[in-house]
Amino acid sequence: MIFLMHLSLILAYGVVLASTSLFIWSLRNKGEGSTLGKAVGAVLFILSVLSILCASYYGIKYWRQGSFESPMEISTMMHQKDIMQVRQKLLKKIQELQKKRIQGLQEKAKNKGNAPQG
Q1: pTM above the 0.70 mark?
Q2: Residue 18: partners with Cβ closer than 8 Å, 6 or more residues away
Q3: Domain interval for residue 35
């Protein structure tokens, strides 16, 4: 299985490649768009390098803590726990609504029985 950290690193490496290509293209070409290309290429390069450093730091930190022993296990368990909690809340709400409906029907039946007949 592939980890989320690996996916973010792959994406960041792709942005480094694209920003470097854009920056080199803007250095070789003169005219419209070359200044914008230099600015965008430089900003994207800096941000993607920072992103790589951040993802690497936290990836190594979590790896040392043993979080990567089995991929996606914790989040899957948390997701299943959330689903069970939502299911229980929905079942309680349905039961409450059914009780209210039954009580309403019983009150209607009582009112019909006590109504004066003409």
Answers
A1: no
A2: 44
A3: 4-70
